[in-house]
What we know:
Elements: H1 5-39, H2 48-89
Amino acid sequence: MGTTKEQKKAAFKEATSDTLLALVINFPLNIFLLWVANRTFIPNMVTEGEQIFWTSVYLTVVFSIVAITRKTWVRLYFFKKDLKKRTKNA
Length: 90
């Protein structure tokens, strides 16, 4: 069973919505997290390599948690929307 044109369109709409939502969330969050890092643990690091490594670890952990949460909410939103559409057409 192949993917229909309607399914592809819905998947594209969900992916685009999720990506735009990520941009709106992640850009200000990134600025805030870098500010926090710069005010807390970065000044205590001796080498530039340590600063880069631990800032990357910090950002990766936070952005992963935010992404999993965001993607779950987006997927549930589109699932509910699709379910309503199917029950309305049934």
